[in-house]
Amino acid sequence: MLRDQWGSRRKRLGAENLRSFDACCLCLQRAQRPVCDSHGHLFCKECVLSDLITQKSNLAKADKQRAHAEKVRAEQAKEAERDAAAAKIADFEKGSKRAHTEEDEASKKRRRDGANPAFWLPALAPGVDMDEEQLRQFEANTPPRTPLCLATDKPHPLTSKQLVDIVLSVRKVGVEEQLFCPSCKKQFTASSHIHVIRGCGHAFCAPCATTLVKQPLDKGEAGSCPECSTDIPSWARHVVAIAREGTGYAGGGVSETATKGVAFQG
Fold it and tell me: Which GO terms describe its molecular function (predicted)?
């Protein structure tokens, strides 16, 4: 009983908990006008472009807030320097011998605020400089400067230029549509390893892509798309493997989730 509530736990995910091989990583529905990035993450074209626009807008707002906070802090630093210089001049003119030991007004105010016994009362709570606090948060949690692909636990930079339009072969079987490899005509399923040619976007199963594209390139021969004969200069840069979540079976990819916690000490 306690084991179900305490400590680290792991659970194997079934097929119903995994994204379909042809589903968009953002909306989780079957990808419309499918595209993929350089890491093989599949998206609807509209979904990923909308997400990029939203991220760019948020980044622009964050940059403005950061610039404003830095400007305010710089102005405050200059004002503090001017006040300190004015205080030194005033002390010199008065001939005070305590010029170097006398506290300025800012330090006195900070000491009074820190010694406030009723700091929990809203009317007597010490003031907080929101611009200073925002800048502190920016420095602690440095936001990215470019949009990211959030389809994985390790986000990577994403731009619209990286997206590859995918041309999937579709056939009708009864009332449903099936996606298949145009070379061997085998149906794509959750267990299929799909490879996409960057130049033309045609998608093939792993055996066909390896036999018809990779092996000739490894031998130094010219590579081309088996469907449209588009030139493929290299395998690593011109062929993208579509990322998949798995089948729900032990040997079918990522199919496990885990939570970490402290074990019961009683």
Answer: ubiquitin protein ligase activity; zinc ion binding
